[in-house]
């Protein structure tokens, strides 16, 4: 009799606790649920960010695949004697997490133009090539060619292995505080029509 009474009392207390959890248990439950949800969100966010940070993803839309990707495949960044390849994210996406997130947010504008069909034909792409190039050049200028410097750096250059022209240009650039993109526009993609970028007197010298 006493055993049954004890069991009923225990079950009654458990049921009561479940129906009216204490403030301590409530707070603990919220923290646990929040912690687990945070891990799931963080894992999902990083997985999605890395999935969109591959060359395969970059060229999954025909605008990139049929235009700049085909140009890039003809350059030394794609195929060279050392077998070191710089892919789209290596040049266009920062490696530092904070800068990478900012770049991904900015990329939402590119998705908008994808939906709008702003460059969905070769003709449209060529008409906007200079504008698109300017955006990239300006961005690289502001960051002192940060992504270029993941692989190239003045301090690591051995000028004895460079040609005389390269040594002269790099030495001058170093003295003048120039950044990679100042001189290396068109290193991985075809240059747009630059005539409107230059003074009239120099157009004939191109």
How do you describe this structure in short?
This protein has 206 residues and is mainly alpha-helical. It has a domain of 142 residues. It is built from twelve helices and no strands.
Features:
single chain, about 210 residues, about 60% helix, mainly alpha, elongated, disordered C terminus
User: What's the multimeric state?
Assistant: single chain
Distance between the termini: 104 Å
pLDDT < 50 runs, ≥5 residues:
199-206
Strand content: under 5%
Radius of gyration: 28 Å
Order of helices and strands: HHHHHHHHHHHH
Largest sheet: none
Number of helical segments? Answer: 12
Query: Structural class, from secondary structure content?
Result: mainly alpha
Number of strands: 0
Outline type: elongated
Mean pLDDT across all amino acids: 84
Helix content: 55-70%
Can you tell me about this structure?
- The protein is mainly alpha-helical and about 210 residues long.
- The chain has a domain at about 55-150 and about 155-200.
- Helix content is about 60%, strand content about 0%.
- The protein contains twelve helices and no strands.
- It has helices spanning about 1-20, 25-50, 55-60, 60-65, 70, 90, 95-105, 110-115, 120-140, 165-175, 180-185, 200-205.
- About 5% of the residues are buried.
- Residues about 200-205 have low confidence and may be disordered.
């Amino acid at each position: 009799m006493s055993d049954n009474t004890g069991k009923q009392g225990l079950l009654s207390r458990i049921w009561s606790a479940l129906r009216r959890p204490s403030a301590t248990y409530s707070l603990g439950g919220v923290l646990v649920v929040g912690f687990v949800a945070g891990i799931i969100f963080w894992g999902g966010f990083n997985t999605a960010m890395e999935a969109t940070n591959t060359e395969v993803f970059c060229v999954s839309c025909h605008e990139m695949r049929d235009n700049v990707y085909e140009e890039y495949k003809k350059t030394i960044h794609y195929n060279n004697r050392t077998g070191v390849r710089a892919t789209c994210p290596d040049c266009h996406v920062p490696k530092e997490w904070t800068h990478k997130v900012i770049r991904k947010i900015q990329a939402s504008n590119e998705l908008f133009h994808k939906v709008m069909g702003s460059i969905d034909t070769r003709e449209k792409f060529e008409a906007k090539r200079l504008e698109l190039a300017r955006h990239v050049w300006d961005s690289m200028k502001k960051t002192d060619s940060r992504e270029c410097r993941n692989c190239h750096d003045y301090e690591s250059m051995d000028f004895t292995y460079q040609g005389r022209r390269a040594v002269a240009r790099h030495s001058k650039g170093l003295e003048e505080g120039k950044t990679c993109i100042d001189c290396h526009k068109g290193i991985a993609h075809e240059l747009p029509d630059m005539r409107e970028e230059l003074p009239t007197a120099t157009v004939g010298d191109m």
